[in-house]
Specification:
The chain is an alpha+beta fold. The protein contains 2 helices and 13 strands. Helix content is 20%, strand content 38%. The strands form 4 sheets. Strands 11-12-7-13 form a 4-stranded antiparallel sheet, covered by helices on one side. A hairpin with a 2-residue loop joins β11 and β12 (131-136). The chain is elongated, with a radius of gyration of 21 Å.
Length: 179
């Protein structure tokens, strides 16, 4: 049995989980998330504890067992407290600002400012001009938005300028050697 898949998921009192037509729907104080269940994976709830079971011990079902458990647990966490990713911007003149909760204005050294619009449910917080916090209930979407912002100006290895995750270590290269 999968070590991750056999762990139960504790559902807080403010969260409701329902399964219909192989689609699990998690409703909480912050949002409502839904996701289709893979074939051969079932979800059962006893009281405030969810458990994920698989139909057989086939390789495909074993692989999906732990994955499904983790995805449902991430949904429960997302609708209660939400997910965040922090980015830092390094470089002279590089900065960020918000013009609306879901619109990020970036100055990244291009000849024009870059506007990044977030999908539904994702918001931006800019505590300082060089720090961006991406917030939302869906862990996958928050991570994808953060990766898309980082992709606009990846950290370069010589001076370290660019957008990086908070705490990310960038391997630095030596510049030209003098004669």
């Amino acid at each position: 049995m999968s070590r991750i898949g056999r762990n139960p998921i504790t559902v807080p009192a403010a969260v409701t989980v329902s399964v219909s037509d192989n689609v699990v729907t998690v409703t909480g104080p912050q949002a409502t998330l839904s996701r289709p269940l893979p074939e051969g994976i079932t979800l059962s709830q006893v009281g405030d504890v969810l458990s994920v079971e698989r139909a057989t011990d086939e390789t495909r079902h074993r692989a999906l067992h732990g994955l499904t458990r983790t995805l449902v647990a991430n949904m429960v966490t997302g609708v209660t407290s939400g997910w965040t990713k922090e980015l830092e911007i390094i470089g002279v003149g590089y900065r960020a600002a918000t013009s609306a909760p879901a619109v990020l204005d970036l100055a990244l050294g291009f000849s024009h400012p870059v506007q990044f619009r977030a999908p539904d449910g994702v918001t931006f917080d800019v505590p300082t001009p060089t720090r961006v916090v991406v917030k939302g209930p869906d862990k996958e979407i928050v991570g994808q938005v953060a990766a898309s912002i980082r992709k606009l100006r990846k950290p370069e290895p010589y001076k370290g300028k660019g957008v990086r995750y908070l705490g990310e270590r960038v391997a630095r290269k030596a510049g030209k050697a003098a004669k």
